[in-house]
Design brief:
single chain, alpha/beta, Rossmann fold, eight-stranded mixed sheet, two-stranded antiparallel ribbon, AB_hydrolase_1
């Protein structure tokens, strides 16, 4: 479980991400808490996008051959992605990531967003940080769940303007969640009376240690804001109406995923992209970044074979 650290002290200690400032004592405590104190050059810093104060991190191996942009899922933050970061570093990739608005160390109402377009502004700002840091090409993009949704939106609407000249990896990507029709009905009723409901933690990994870890994590939001559901409803319409893309993303999907409506999502993604390469994992649940080691290795092997 995460060791004690002080998020407010950490935020006030941060220099701009592009300054490559040495890690403060607060930053070191934070990275140790989540196992992010990996044995490579690394730094932590701030940048701005869409009116938010965002916190990003970079891990840089000795001789990087490419860069992996990593986008976390809803309710998540960078501290939950150690396994993916370690794998990418082992491939020789630099890794750059940030906490999304309203998540982790970044500013904003917890787990809320007014418009999913703000996530695109965040991704564009992360690309700009990578340019300032001169991170090596090719640039790969990896997103889990809502992070996958952000990657999908980018591919469908950025087109040839996208700086992603490598592969796009979608782990249990969100198009719409499970029980979507019920969620929409609930939103239309509840939004007139409440601005959020209590979050229900679920068993979203086969790793028995993961749920207790989440429940003890001080950076986990405890409410589901109705504003986020409304923004998601508008975004789903935008994605369903988007023109198709010639890109061929890699998609990894667990068949025991009870969080997203994965049969519908795969149908949409197959229609939007040119023959995406899909790995189905019968036993895997939603949080693929924190699945059991054997499951992670299966999809890491699948990805590595297609990045080589």
């Amino acid at each position: 479980m995460p060791a004690p650290f002080h998020p407010d002290l950490l935020r006030t200690s941060l220099a701009p991400l592009a300054d490559r400032q040495a890690l403060s004592a607060q930053a070191l405590d934070y990275q140790r808490s989540y196992g992010l104190d990996l044995r490579v050059q690394r730094w932590l810093g701030g940048f701005q996008a869409g009116g938010f104060e965002l916190v990003g991190q970079v891990w840089l191996p000795e001789q990087p051959v490419a860069t992996m942009f990593l986008l976390h899922g809803y309710y998540d933050h960078m501290g939950l992605y150690r396994h993916v970061i370690e794998w990418a570093l082992a491939q020789g990739y630099a890794v750059i990531s940030c906490d999304l608005p309203g998540h982790g160390l970044s500013s904003g109402e917890r787990a809320s967003i007014a418009d999913f377009a703000l996530y695109q502004q965040t991704l564009d700002a992360l690309f700009e940080q990578a340019l300032q840091l001169d991170l090596p090409r090719p640039w790969h993009l990896c997103g889990q769940s809502t992070g996958g949704a952000i990657a999908v939106d980018h591919l469908l609407h950025a087109g040839e303007r996208s700086p992603v000249d490598g592969q796009v990896i979608l782990l249990a990507p969100l198009v719409r969640p499970r029980a979507w029709h019920w969620s929409k009905l609930s939103y239309r009723v509840l939004r007139h009376f409440v601005n959020g409901i209590e979050r229900q933690f679920s068993e979203n990994s086969n790793d028995p240690a993961f749920l207790p870890f989440l429940q003890a994590d001080p950076l986990q939001p405890r409410r589901l804001p109705t504003a986020w559901v409304g923004a998601l409803m508008a975004w789903v319409k935008r994605i369903e109406a988007a023109p198709p893309s010639p890109r061929r993303p890699l998609i990894v999907q667990g068949e025991a995923d009870g969080t997203v409506d994965w049969p519908y999502n795969l149908k949409v993604l197959k229609a939007k992209f040119a023959d995406p390469q899909i790995l189905m994992l019968p036993e895997a649940r939603h949080h693929l970044a924190n699945e059991l080691p054997g499951t992670r290795q299966r999809y890491f092997d699948f990805i590595a074979q297609r990045l080589g």
